[in-house]
Design a protein that fits this description.
Length: 204
């Protein structure tokens, strides 16, 4: 899933030759072909909300990912089977896709360890009330910490953006912070959640 370009055509041709399978380039806003074996998403062309449209696919991978922090933020929201970075060679990408098609994951050891630590901590806080926060508020706080916007949170939790903002108001009041950045830092200090090193502009 990407935008059409001469580079995309060459990429598709290379994968078809090396993997000996049918590879089809689709615009990121177009519907998926029926029953794909693997969906490969260009992370520079698709928003998180767009990517989540395909999260039900059994095998899904992202390419053109810039940094490991970006990869982990994606994986905290979508069950990718593989991550390919912008600097990866065509040979590396082809090898990784082959492994994914063989029902293996293509993720670094460091990413796997980070995800394991995150989900273990999530299990712990699920049974430990913190500062009077409800389970829904803890869930939203963890999504804020993974750099999701209000729109992304609303889409993921099937809530209105107004409801998300109401939850954020209650969260800020309970943990005694004044903005999104402070809430992320609070989550890092008190919940031991994963916080990407590269942060985006806070959204009110």
């Amino acid at each position: 899933m990407t935008s059409p370009s001469p580079q995309t055509e060459l990429f598709v041709e290379y994968l078809q030759e090396t993997l000996k399978c049918v590879v089809e380039a689709c615009h990121h806003e177009a519907p998926l072909p029926s029953s794909p074996c693997l969906v490969l998403i260009d992370s520079t062309q698709c928003s998180l909300a767009q990517m989540m449209r395909w999260s039900h696919i059994d095998k899904i991978a992202a390419f053109n990912v810039e940094h490991e922090d970006d990869a982990i933020s994606l994986l905290l929201n979508i069950p990718f089977s593989g991550i390919f970075y912008r600097q990866d060679s065509l040979e590396q990408i082809s090898k990784g896709i082959g492994k994914i098609l063989e029902n293996e994951n293509w993720l670094t050891r460091n990413i796997m360890q980070t995800l394991i630590r995150h989900y273990r901590q999530q299990q712990q806080i699920a049974f430990q009330p913190v500062m009077g926060l409800t389970q829904r508020e803890l869930e939203i706080l963890s999504l804020i910490a993974s750099q999701q916007s209000n729109a992304d949170i609303a889409h993921r939790l099937m809530l209105s953006q107004h409801t998300v903002k109401s939850h954020l108001y209650n969260i800020f009041r309970k943990i005694r912070v004044h903005n999104r950045h402070q809430a992320i830092q609070w989550a890092h200090e008190h919940l031991n959640l994963y916080i990407p090193k590269r942060t985006t502009e806070p959204e009110s």
